[in-house]
C-alpha cells in the first residue's frame, strides 16, 4: 500500500483501514457503481428486458448488502434516504454528477460539485455509516476542464486529510475530442488523474470494431496511471461469460487494479444480481478463474471469502 503524503500521520491508520476495507487487502477494487440514476436518468431502470424490481432504488442496496462487494458508490442524497436500513455496506460518495440530457453537440460537459468533503465527513460522523471514500467525474478535453481540475484536486487533498480514499471517473469528452475511446488519449487522461492525486482512476478499456477488447494495448493506460490504480468501466449489460472474460483479461493481462460495475449487476433480478456481483468479486478480489467465477454466478460454486 502506497500512502499518499497528503494523508497526515494521524490519519494514516484511517486511510489504511479504508483502503483494506475496499480492496480486501488485495490492492484491487471491486466497486458496485450506483450513480446512474443521475447520470443516465431512468434509462437503466425501466424498459424492455429490464426486470420490474430494478425500478425500485432500494434494489441497489439489497444487492450491496447481500453480495460480497468492495464498495458501493452513490450520491449522498440517495444514501441519506436508504442508509439507515443498510448500515453495514462500505460506501463511497460521489461529490458531483450530471445528467446525459445536454450532449457535447450543444455544450461541453461540466459536472459541478454538489457537496464538499467536509459535508461528507460531517454526514459520516452523525450517521456512523461506513463511508470509506469520495469520488468525482472528470471530463478531460471539455472547455471547463480547468474548473473541474480545481474541484477534483481540492476534493482529493481534503479527502486524504481525513484518511478517505479517492476515485476519479475519467472521460475524454468535449467538442475538441474526436474519439473519446482512443487509447493513447485515455493514457493521457490517466496521467492527468495521477497528477491530481487520485487513488483509483475509473476509465474505459475500449474494444475494436469487431467487439474484441484491446487488452494488450490497454497496458499503456495502466502504465500511465503509475501508482494510481486503474479500474475499468463495466459498461452496458453483456453476456456473463464475455463480461467475466473481459474483466479477467483487464486484470491479469493489462494489469488493471479492478472494476466499477453497475448495469451488468443491477439490471438483473435480485438473486441473479447478487450472484453476478459475487462472480465479479471472485475474479477481482480473490483470483478465481473465469470458469470458477462463472460457476459462482450459476450457483454451482460458493464464493470463499478470504480474510
UniProtKB/TrEMBL annotation:
Active-site residues, as the UniProt record annotates them: 171 (proton donor), 202 (schiff-base intermediate with dihydroxyacetone-p)
Transmembrane segments: none
GO terms, molecular function: fructose-bisphosphate aldolase activity
Keyword Lyase: yes
Keywords: Lyase, Schiff base
Top EC class for this record: lyase
Protein name: fructose-bisphosphate aldolase
Organism whose genome encodes this protein: Candidatus Falkowbacteria bacterium GW2011_GWE1_38_31
